[in-house]
Structure formats: structure tokens, C-alpha cells
Amino acid sequence: MSLDAKIPPGELSKKWSDYKSKVHLVNPANRRSIEVIVVGSGLAGSSAAATLAEMGYKVKVFCFQDSPRRAHSIAAQGGINAAKNYQNDGDSVYRLFYDTVKGGDYRSREANVHRLAEVSGNIIDQCVAQGVPFAREYGGLLSNRSFGGVQVQRTFYAAGQTGQQLLLGAYSALERQIGMGKIKMYSRHEMLDVVTIDGKARGIIARNLITGELERHFGHAVVLCTGGYGNVFYLSTNAMGSNVTAAWKAHKKGAFFGNPCYTQIHPTCIPVSGDHQSKLTLMSESLRNDGRIWVPKKKDDNRPANQIPEDERDYYLERRYPAFGNLVPRDVASRAAKERCDEGYGVGASKMAVYLDFASAIKRYGKIEANKHHLDNPTEAEVITLGKEIIKEKYGNLFDMYKQITGEDPYEVPMRIYPAVHYTMGGLWVDYNLMTTVPGMYALGECNFSDHGANRLGASALMQGLADGYFVIPYTIGDYLSGEIRTPAIPTDHQAFVDAENSVRERIEKLMNVKGKHSVDHFHKKLGKVMWNKCGMARNAQGLKEAIEEVQQIREEFWKDVRIPGSADEFNPELEKAGRLADFLELAELMCIDALDRNESCGGHFREEYQTEEGEALRDDENFAFVSAWEFKGDGNFELHKEPLVYENIKIAQRSYK
Amino acid sequence: MKLKLKVWRQQNSQSEGGFQTYDVDDISPDMSFLEMFDVLNERLINEGGDPIAFDHDCREGICGMCSMYINGRPHGPNRGVTTCQLHMRSFHDGESIVVEPWRASSFPVVKDLVVDRSAFDRIIAAGGFISVNTGNAQDANSIPIGKDIADSSFEAAACIGCGACVAACPNSSAALFTSAKISQLNQLPQGQPERYRRTLDMVHQMDKEGFGGCSNTGACEYECPKEISIENIARMNRDYIKASLCKD
Ligand SMILES: Cc1cc2nc3c(=O)[nH]c(=O)nc-3n(C[C@H](O)[C@H](O)[C@H](O)COP(=O)(O)OP(=O)(O)OC[C@H]3O[C@@H](n4cnc5c(N)ncnc54)[C@H](O)[C@@H]3O)c2cc1C
Ligand code: SF4
Ligand code: FES
């Protein structure tokens, strides 16, 4: 099967508007009899479902939490990008497009990224109209800040709770349609398989998590918005329930998986404190607007941070990357932290941490405030108090969170931070329409592979999720559904539904019947360690080969020795976890295979064999300027298809942030 | 640390529940309250028992899913934190801790510590939105909003929908939750056209779901992990009265 990305012809900046004016439409009367299934209620799912229902389609939405409002998008902290140029600092659609392609280390598709930049401004308009309370200036206009890898201020935010506010906006649009009876919501439901008929996606099998019942649901199209798979590493900044199950089932039903090895390790997270740890907590990238990252110049320096004088500190990002300083992209910042710690300059009890220090920002803001308040000759203490107020307004909830977890007060001592798994750029391969290789099945938001290449820039995931849901899928799905207006709803006693349900039931029974000795978490922790050590921030061929064998081994042990208490026909969180881990155990192998196949370093994929003399990622554009799209060929077998990446509007170059 | 836990166990919504006692040791003060439950559950599984069901997802205080009633207080002893952010250093060695689900007839127990809070979704569906279809928005900066109004709206919008306010209230009132959303939207210029209708519809839905009336005890504000202000209830009541008068 050959891959067709279906990129419309014509000039880059006109592709999307031309496409929109020519795409096939479904007339409003016909939309009423067309059913769409949306799996996931995060930014991508809620925005897509609400918009499709507003247009008149009949929509069903599924999520595994008890309410759609709790999807993991809620946890996003720092902000959302848009090329509004409200700050008059030279931003434009082209610049956002360029920054995103460069930030992604030239491994994303030009046409998709340009479309994303084009619709970014509409997202902010839409959210404000819904009542999303973004941060504002005294004049009443919207406020902006900077994120890594860019030199303009284009990030809109709501304190450190931007994801929450955006999701609640999309959720309110969703609930409005639910209230009007145009969407039927299925909370505490988990999708466990896609149903395909004559090669087209026609519905799903879902498990009611309260009763354990398996349900069949028909749709003319199935839209997956199920988030990322960072939890394959066990410890990550994702929510406990985040998983790959929906995407993986789709993959096994024919959807190619794009760039599975591209994982984002976020530089600023609270370090691991012990074996009991169940998840890692992010400290938003927005903190790098004001925080300075450093380690002591001396190895094994055990003095408390405040006692290390200025000239004995190494602000290594400012030293190595003077042009971007603390705001280099995430992959660069993470590797630099790892390098310092591996060399023995790390701080804290574990020595696997670096400082993120706000002392100079507090002083800087304090002085500005003192001037504003017309205080002549303020004392140092007055300046610091005023400065802390400003820091509190900007990042208060993050500072509180840090204090809760570590027991240390970041207003007084620098934060200790270390990189952690955060986001997966890889995901289901989709074409320009966001359709997977299975006709009628779409993937939106973090669960697709598009837009971010080998490294995502901060504040761009929220943008992508909402772009996909509000502004892309409402057009592109019409192109497919216009051909479906003569297809009546297929009754769910169709053999394909029966077969899919049976195979889901068999798998659940198989899991329940293992009756082994160890809990699901026992295996998940093991898998996480292998992936973190051998397919994490740095990878090499030797390690990846070992990892593949180790993953296979853990998978085998899991199926022989996992213990799931209770039964399958009741509320059973351990069974849910087991099903998700079983899929992670298959995905993990593909991630390692993909990482081993890509003999270059790019963005978040750092192969130790391929680096410059200064330790930067060394791409191989001649041989690897393509998307790896893997086809499932039966257990543990995958076939590689390549989508060549063609750059017509950007000169592809070595990324430099120096 | 060693602890004695008295935990509510209930098979499902129909069955009767009761307390069971568990001794746990080897608890580190750096663990979160939920990680302490992970340790206990791991042990129960290893012993062939039934682990305790509890709701949780983000484990960073923002999704609103975690919901334990600890020693008589929703989300435990500390103000302004959710159960998942509570750390064991807030307890002392040898302490006995009682853990129950939210208690309210509008939040039926699903299993053990898990309850059904879908009534909250239905309150939002009744009016917790601004009716604007995708694609109809004007430029964001064409609606300037004073910083104080924006900030006040944001503070109300910080509600995570956890239901602690209901669990804390002697009347099981959902006034704080409902008023937080009303107050967020009714303060904004965009929210004005539907202001009174929204207030009436949401309050009616709240009553229909069987939540009790508000008698101003203030327990909700005190226990709310996001410190949502009771002023929002006053705002909701003012708008409700105005709306009822206009209607007649
Ligand atoms: C801590 C943190 C902070 C972040 N901060 C930022 C930021 O500041 N800016 C930014 O741009 N990005 C940020 N990100 C990234 C961004 O939040 C996510 O990439 C984005 O929100 C994902 O949205 P989504 O809609 O694709 O998926 P999600 O919001 O993860 O939603 C997934 C949905 O799918 C459902 N689901 C999953 N599997 C199934 C199944 N099998 N059956 C049924 N339902 C299922 C879930 O219930 C959920 O509703 C952050 C991420 C994290 C973890
Ligand atoms: S008002 Fe507070 S206690 Fe009530 S649901 Fe919202 S966050 Fe929870
Ligand atoms: S688990 Fe999300 S708020 Fe506690």
C-alpha cells in the first residue's frame, strides 16, 4: 500500500483556503442522519464533537474518566500559541510556521504546519468568545509571554492553568450540545476496538467501566482524540489513565503508526524522589521566561544553593546558547541538563537535578514595581517583597504545587528540576485530511503524528488540538462523509460487530484467567525502566537491541504471571490498567524498532552515535528526511513505509540556537 | 511511618457498605496520600484480596477526579489542596486515619470511595456556557475586559468540579460549584446576553438533581481545594432574584 498524504496542490499559503472552497460538503438535511463517533473529550475531542454537532451531525462521545471535563488536557499549564502579533514584535503566520518546522528539527509536513499557523488566530478568538478568562493587561487587552525556541511573544495564557481554562471552554461547548440532545455522552467508557466493514471504519466496541458490559456503537466515521502514550515509560507527566489503547487497536486494524520513537522529554520537572513515585510533575516551560538554570562550577558541590556565590555558578544554557539562553527548545535543554548531571555537576540528594532559580527575576520585577510605586531608595527587602508578588501572580499555582510535593519553598530557594517524559510527537499517521490509513477513521490532537516533527515547541499542543477540532476536521470530514450520505446506519448485529466484540471479550477473559502472582504495576514499572534507560533521552543501537529483547521478555512474563483481582463484569480498575499495559507492551517494541531504524539524531530522538562535536543532534537529511509509517503485520511484525518530506518553502538547515 | 487506616468498602451502588481496618507500614513522608493507597492496594493484590477503588487521574490537583473524605474533611486536613496533592508528611507516625467517599444523595457511591458526580455535568449542560458556534467569533482584542474583571472571572473559573463543596455542606448543597460557573460567565461582557436565563436554568437544574439549599454555613469555601470564594454564591443569588423578578 502506498502512502498518499493528499496535500492539496498550489502555493503553500493558499492551499488551505483553496481546499476549503473546493472541498465536498454534506448538506444540512443529510447531516442529521449521519452519525459520528468521537473517542476522547480532551481539547481535540471536545472541540471536534461540539463543532460537528453544531453543524448538525449526530455525535457520540466517549471518555474513560467520570466526566469529559477531566481529560488530560486539563493539566496543561503554560499557554497556547497564536500568530496574532498583538505585541507588535514581528510575529506572523509565516514565522509561526517557520519556528514550528525548525523546532521540529525539519521532520514535519510543511502543508499541515502552515495550516496550523493560519488557523491559530481563530482559536484565540473562539476561546475568548466562549468566555475563557485569559490573562489581560490593565488596558483590557490580552497578555502574552514567550516559550522556548522562539523570539517573539505569542503565547496566550491563564496563569499556570491554560489547559484547564481552554478545556473548560471546549467542555462547555460540548455540554451545550449534550443539553440540546445533539450529542450523546458516554463517560466511564473505554474504547477497546474499532469495527471495520469493507475496509471502512464503522464503529467501536466500548466497555462500560461501571458494569463491565461490552457495547457496540455504529458511526459513519470514527474520530480518535485519545491523547498521547507517554505512560509507556511508567513515570511521566501524563495522567495515570493516559494510554495508547485506542490508537493501538486502530493500528492493529490497519492504521499506520507514524514516528513512534519521537518522544518529548521535558526539561523542567520535579525530580524523582523514590520508588513509590507514581507520576512526575511538570513545572511549566513558562518558568524559563524568568527562571535561570544553573549548576555549581565545581563537581559534587554540597553547599546549599544560596551559599554558592555568583561566580561559582555555571548558567550552562546561557553559556552554550547565548542567542536563546534559557529559552532553547525542550530537547536541547533536556540533553544539556543530562550532560551536566552525567558529568557529576548535578545537585540535590540524588545528584540528578539542576537548579531553576528565580532570585534575579524577583529582584528585577521588584525594582520595576518600586519605580511604579514611586518608592525612592527602596530597601533590598522591600524590593524582594514586591518582586515576589509579581512572581506569585505569574506562577503562583506552580510554586504552590512545587512546595506541596517537595516541601521546599521556591520563593526562598531555587527549584530543583530534571527532565521527564512529557509528550509523544509520534502517533497514528494521518493525511492532510487527518484521516488514518483506514478510510473513515480520523486521528486528532496528540494521538496523531502530525505537525510537530521530531520535537514539539511549548504551547503548540493546545494549539494543535483545538485547530484540529474546531477548524480542520469540520471541513475535512465532509470530504469523506459526502460519499456516505446513501449509507444507512448499519445495525450492530452485523457480523463485523459480533466478531469484534467476541475478540475483545476473549482478550479480557485471557487476562482475567492468567491468575498469576504480580500486580499490573509490577510489570509496568519494569517496562518503564527499560524504556527510560534504553529508549529515553539518549539511545544507541546496542541498547535498543537489548531493549527489544527485554520488552519481549516482560511481555511474556506479563501474560504468564499477572494477577487481576475481581471479575470482568464489575467496576475493576486493575483490569483497565492491565488492558492498557498489554498494549503498551506491544507499542514499546515498535518504539525501539523505530528508534533503531532511524540512524540519525533529530529533535527528541537522540542517537548517541550521531552527534556533532559539540554534542548536538546530527541529522541525516539525505537518508532520513521521511516520516516512518509502520504497518502492523501480526504480533511483533511491522512493515516500514516512508512518506518523503519535501521542503519547498523553508531552507532546511542545521538547527542552531547559539 | 506506620498508620492505621479505616476505609469505607462498598461493593456497588446497591449493596450496603462498611468500614474495614488496615495497618500499613513503610510509608515515607514524601509519598502522596494516593501513593500510600497504591502501596496498600499492591499489598492487597499480592495477598489475593480486593484492592480499594478510588478515583484519580492527573495526580496534580487539576482534573478534580480524586475525592476522599479524610478524617471528616473532604481532601483531608490541609486547606487549598486536593487529595492527590496531600502528602504523608501532614500526618504523624502511628496516626489512625478514616477514609470515606463523598456523602451526598446526589452523588451515589459506585464502589468503595468512587462516587457518581454526573449531576455536575448536567448542571453545566443546563446553562454553563456562552452560546457561540465555532467560527462566529470576532477578533479577541475587540472585546477589552478590565484586568480586575478578567481576574475575578478567572478565580471563579478555577473550580475543578471535584464536589468537595457538596461533601462539606451539611445540606449537600451544590451552590458553590454552580455559582462559580455562573459568576465566571456573568461577569464577562460576552456572558451578558444569556446572563439571567443561564442563572435560572442552572439553579433549576441544581434543585432538580436533589442538591440541598444553601444556608450560608461557609463550609464549602473552607474546604474547597481551589479556595473558590463564597462571594460567588452571593453573586448568583443576586442574579437569580433579578432574573426571577424580570420573569414575572
Ligand atoms: C502536565 C502537562 C502540561 C502541558 N502543558 C502544555 C502547555 O502549556 N501548552 C501546550 O500546548 N501543551 C501542553 N501540554 C500538552 C497538551 O496538554 C496535550 O498534548 C493535549 O492537551 C492533548 O490533548 P488531546 O485532546 O489530544 O488528548 P487528551 O486531553 O489527553 O484527551 C484524551 C481523551 O481521550 C480519552 N481516551 C483515551 N483513551 C480512551 C479509550 N480507550 N476509550 C475512551 N476514551 C479514551 C480520555 O478519556 C480523554 O478524554 C501539557 C501536557 C502535560 C502532560
Ligand atoms: S467549588 Fe471548589 S469544592 Fe466545589 S467543585 Fe469547585 S473546586 Fe471542588
Ligand atoms: S487526581 Fe486530578 S485533582 Fe487529584
First-to-last CA distance of chain A: 43 Å
Alpha-carbon distance between the two ends of chain B: 63 Å
- Quickly give the CATH architecture of the largest domain in chain B: Orthogonal Bundle
The helicity of chain A comes to 25-40%
Helix and strand pattern of chain B = EEHEEEEEHHHHHHH
Strand order of the largest sheet of chain B: 2-1-5-3-4
> Largest interface here, residues on each chain?
A-B, 82 and 79 residues
CATH class type of the domain at 267-421 in chain A: Alpha Beta
Q: Total number of β-strand segments of chain B?
A: 7
Low-confidence stretches of chain A: none
**Sheet of most strands of chain B:** 5 strands, mixed
What sort of overall outline of chain A do the alpha carbons produce when their principal axes are compared?
Answer: globular
Per DSSP, the total helix count of chain A is 17
CATH fold-level topology of the largest domain in chain B: Fumarate Reductase Iron-sulfur Protein, Chain B, domain 2
Compact summary:
The complex is a heterodimer of chains A (658) and B (248). Chain A is built from 17 helices and 19 strands.
Verbal overview:
The complex is a heterodimer of chains A (658) and B (248). Chain A is 38% helix and 14% strand. Chain A has helices at 15-22, 28-31, 43-55, 93-103, 110-130, 162-179, 245-252, 316-320, 330-342, 359-372, 380-406, 461-481, 495-514, 520-534, 541-561, 573-597, 621-624, and strands spanning 35-39, 58-62, 80-81, 155-156, 183-186, 189-197, 200-208, 214-218, 221-224, 257-258, 263-269, 292-296, 313-314, 354-357, 415-424, 427-428, 441-443, 626-632, 638-644. In chain A, the strands form five sheets. Chain A has a five-stranded parallel beta sheet with strand order 5-2-1-9-17, with helices on both faces. A five-stranded antiparallel beta sheet of chain A has the order 11-15-14-12-13. In chain A, strands 16-10-18-19 form a four-stranded antiparallel beta sheet. In chain A, α4 (93-103) packs across α5 (110-130), α10 (359-372) crosses α11 and α14 runs antiparallel to α15. In chain A, 59% of the residues are buried. In chain B, a hairpin with an 8-residue loop joins β1 and β2 (18-24). Chain B has two domains: 3-111, Ubiquitin-like (UB roll); 117-245, Alpha-helical ferredoxin (Fumarate Reductase Iron-sulfur Protein, Chain B, domain 2). By secondary structure, chain B is an alpha+beta fold. Chain B is elongated and about 60 Å long. Helix content of chain B is 35%, strand content 11%. Chains A and B meet through α3, α5, α6, α11 and α12 of A and α1, α2 and α3 of B. The complex binds flavin-adenine dinucleotide, iron/sulfur cluster (SF4) and FE2/S2 (inorganic) cluster. Flavin-adenine dinucleotide (FAD) binds next to α3, α6, β6, α7 and β15 of chain A.
